[in-house]
Write a structure and sequence with these properties.
Elements lengths: L15 H18 L13 E6 L5 H12 L3 E6 L11 H9 L5 E6 L4 H8 L4 E7 L5 H15 L6 E5 L6 H12 L3 E5 L9 H5 L2 E3 L2 H7 L2 E4 L15 H8 L3 H5 L6 E3 L12 H4 L6 H22 L1
Parallel strand pairs: 1-2, 1-3, 3-4, 5-6, 5-8, 6-7, 8-9
Helix pairs in contact: 1-5, 1-12, 2-12, 5-6, 5-12
Length: 308
Amino acid sequence: MQLSTKHLIGIKELSTEDVSLILQTATQFKEVLQRSVKKVPSLRDVTIVNLFYENSTRTRISFELAEKRLGADTINFAASGSSAAKGETLLDTVHNILSMKVDMVVMRHAASGAAHFLAKHLPNTAIVNAGDGTNEHPTQALLDAFSIREKIGTLTGKKIVLIGDIMHSRVALSNIYLLKKMGAEVMVAGPPTLIPKYIKEALGVQVEYNLQNALQWCDVANVLRIQLERQKKVLFSTLREYNLTYGVTKNVLQRLNKEIVIMHPGPINRGVEIDSDVADGNNSIILQQVENGVAVRMAVLYLLAERS
C-alpha cells in the first residue's frame, strides 16, 4: 500500500486508509527502535531539510532522530540564524535550499497555511507540516493516536477529551480531525473564552465547561497548555485561577469513580494545566508519547519517500 498523498500537510487531507497505514508502519519501526542497532538504511541517499521558523524542542529533535535512524542526510535550518532574519522570503529560502538537491522539507512556521503554500509552489518536493500557526500539527495527532491505541487497544468508540486552550491549539484541531476519522467520540473542555463558538457545529465535537464532568465522561484526557504567546488579549484572570478551575490535579482525579489515561503533547506548564503528581503518575503516558513520536515520524518520512 501507498499513501494517497505526496505531502503530509494536515490530517484533514488524509484518508482513514492513510492513517491506518502510517500507524501500522510506525508499529514496525517501534520494533526496530527496541533493537540494539536502531538504524535502518531505508532513506539512504535521501536529503531532508528541517526548516524551523518557530522554537521547538521535542518536534525538532524527534524529526532529526527519525531521519538519522532511517539513514537520511539531514540539514537543520533555524530562522533566527539565517537570511530569513534579514528579510529573505520563505519561498526564496526554500528555492535556495532546493537548488542544493533536497528531497524533502519538514517545516514549522508561525503562519497558518505556510505548509500549503510551500506544497503549492514546490509540488515535486515532499512537504511535511511540523506545525503551522494555529492550523494543524499532523504528526502530533498521529503519535497521540498511536499512543492511545497502544495503551487501550483501539480508537473506535473510545471517548477522548481535549482540555485547555482549544482556540489557539493546532494539536487540538489535528487530534479532532484524526480521532473523528478513526471512530472515536471527541469532547473539548475548558473556559468558554478558550473554546471557539463554532466548534460544536463545525467539527461535530461535544463541548463541556466543567472539568469534573469532562473527566468523568472520558476514557482518555489529552491536556493542552495555555498558549500565552498566541493570545492577543486577556482570556482569563490569572494562571492560578485557571489551575484551580481547570487544572488536572490528583484531587480532581481521585473524585472520579474510574481511572483514565492522561496525555499531554508538551511542553508542560506544571502547576497550571496539570500538576506534577498527575503528569508523572501511573496513568500518564506522556513519556510514551515522546518515545512514539520517533517511530511515527519515521513512518511518515519513509512512506512519503516511497510515494515520491
